[in-house]
Each structure stands twice: as structure tokens, then as C-alpha cells.
């Protein structure tokens, strides 16, 4: 029996690891700076982990509200090391590291795409087509990732791009983003009956997230043939002018210089 349109559906939340839930760092100088600011530095190998303030409390809340997937582009062994460090410090709720409380996906779940980035390094993309194997409807999926290229094969407003967690510029007491901004926003999304991409398009900016289309323009301009072939399939027609020319043909458009603040024009008119 179909779900009535006025009843919120079960939603899937995909969380990036590095840059959203924690910071993975190799630089000895950066580690010293983080320690000077009062951050706990975890790990005992060449890669160290700085957990985000309120991480455990945040995960406890979202695990109750959503089907959660922690999806990182790191290889499986490195992912395990990071989760072990976080668990040993009490930063993870029970069952997270083992995959019992949520799914843990790594680089093997990503798609490697060549010839996309300006520096020639392959990009590991988190394509929502992977979700179809698990019978997860992309209508009700939201990914939170600080790297716009990771989600460029998905609908633009199916991902939130929050500011990257940088423990070198803030102290643990000042980093309240997870529980004071992101969590209340997610609770509102969870109660909404709107399709996720429509909800995100309207409200992404109120918690300091960036417009994914403008980020892609800045990252991939001029737009290469490979990027064109990917984006042309997924960018809605009304937004193509941002990445292509005014006639919406596959010619690169001039990138905008300013990311306009606030919700889309459509939502501004609606809320006047």
C-alpha cells in the first residue's frame, strides 16, 4: 500500500567521514596546532584523527531518526583504523564501527572517474545508483559531504555541502555545528513530506551550506567533455545555464563570481 503524501517517509542519511564527522590529518604541524587549541588527537599510526565536538551525541540522535550510512572514499583498512580510533575514545555509539547500527561504506562502494579533475587525479564519486542495489529510494536520500565532486553524478540538491571541519581555526568549545545547526535542520527534513531535493533547494543556505551548482562551476570551469557528459544528464534544465551557455548547449558558460546567499528565488517569493 503506498504511503499517503501527507505522511513523512523513512529517510536515508549518508554522512561523509573526513571533513564532516572528523578530521583525518597527517601533518605534524597541523596536529600540534590542533592540540594547542585543545582538540583530542586520536590514533597511533601515520594518520591521526581529530573527532568533531558532540560527535557521539549527534550520531545517537540521527541513528534514532534515519537509516544512516557512513560513506567515505578511503580504502577499507584506513576506514577501519579511523573508526577504531573514534570508538576507543568513546566518540561512537555502540554498533557503529561494527556496522550493526548503520552501514559503513568505503572506497569500494565509490565509482572512479578518470579525466574529470583539473589536476588529472581520478575522482571517487558516491553515485546514488549504488543505493538501488539495496532497494533504497533516492527520493528520500540526503548526503552530507564537504566535497562537491563526490556527488556530481547525483541530483544537485540531494546533497548538503557544509563548511569543512577544520580544527586548526576553531576550538572544541566553539565547534557546535553538528548539534546546534545541522541536527535541528535534519529533524525538520525528517518531518517534511517534501521530496528531499526540493527541501534542500529551499533550505540549504540557512545552516551555512553552499550551493552545489556554483561549487561545480568553480571547480570544473571550463567544463570538460567528461564533466559535460555527466552533468548534462543530471542537472535540471532550469539550472543548466549555470554550467553551460544561455542556449543550454554543451558549451561552457562563464562561471559566476558570487554564490548568492539565501534560498532560491522561488522560495524567496514563496516566503515573502
From TrEMBL:
SUPFAM superfamilies: HAD-like (SSF56784). Residues 246-272 are annotated as: Disordered. It is a single-pass membrane protein. Keywords: Mitochondrion, Protein transport, Transit peptide, Translocation, Transport. Residues 253-263 have a biased composition (Pro residues). One of its GO terms (cellular component) is TIM23 mitochondrial import inner membrane translocase complex. Residues 6-189 form the FCP1 homology domain. It is found in: Mitochondrion inner membrane. PROSITE patterns: FCP1. Belongs to the TIM50 family. Essential component of the TIM23 complex, a complex that mediates the translocation of transit peptide-containing proteins across the mitochondrial inner membrane. Component of the TIM23 complex. This is Mitochondrial import inner membrane translocase subunit TIM50.
Amino acid at each position: 500500500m503506498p504511503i499517503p503524501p501527507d505522511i513523512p517517509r523513512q529517510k536515508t542519511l549518508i554522512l561523509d567521514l573526513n571533513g564532516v564527522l572528523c578530521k583525518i590529518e597527517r601533518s605534524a604541524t597541523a596536529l600540534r596546532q590542533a592540540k594547542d587549541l585543545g582538540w583530542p588527537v586520536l590514533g597511533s599510526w601515520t594518520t591521526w584523527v581529530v573527532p568533531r565536538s558532540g560527535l557521539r551525541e549527534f550520531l545517537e540522535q540521527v541513528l534514532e531518526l534515519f537509516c544512516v550510512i557512513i560513506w567515505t572514499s578511503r580504502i577499507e583498512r584506513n576506514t577501519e583504523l579511523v573508526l577504531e580510533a573514534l570508538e576507543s575514545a568513546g566518540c561512537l555509539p555502540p554498533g557503529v564501527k561494527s556496522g550493526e547500527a548503520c552501514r559503513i561504506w568505503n572506497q569500494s562502494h565509490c565509482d572512479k572517474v578518470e579525466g574529470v579533475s583539473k589536476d588529472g587525479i581520478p575522482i571517487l564519486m558516491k553515485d546514488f545508483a549504488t543505493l538501488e542495489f539495496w532497494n533504497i529510494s533516492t527520493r528520500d536520500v540526503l548526503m552530507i559531504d564537504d566535497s562537491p565532486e563526490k556527488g556530481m553524478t547525483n541530483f544537485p540538491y540531494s546533497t548538503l555541502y557544509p563548511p569543512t571541519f577544520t580544527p586548526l581555526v576553531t576550538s572544541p568549545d566553539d565547534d557546535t555545528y553538528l548539534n546546534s545547526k545541522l541536527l535541528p535542520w535534519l529533524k525538520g527534513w525528517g518531518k517534511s513530506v517534501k521530496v528531499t531535493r526540493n527541501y534542500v533547494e529551499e533550505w540549504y543556505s540557512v545552516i551555512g551550506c553552499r550551493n552545489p551548482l556554483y561549487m561545480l562551476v568553480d571547480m570544473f570551469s571550463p567544463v570538460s567533455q567528461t564533466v559535460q557528459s555527466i552533468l548534462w544528464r543530471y542537472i535540471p534544465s532550469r539550472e543548466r545555464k549555470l554550467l553551460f551557455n544561455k542556449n543550454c548547449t554543451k558549451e561552457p558558460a562563464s562561471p559566476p563570481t558570487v554564490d548568492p546567499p539565501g534560498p532560491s528565488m522561488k522560495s524567496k517569493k514563496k516566503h515573502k
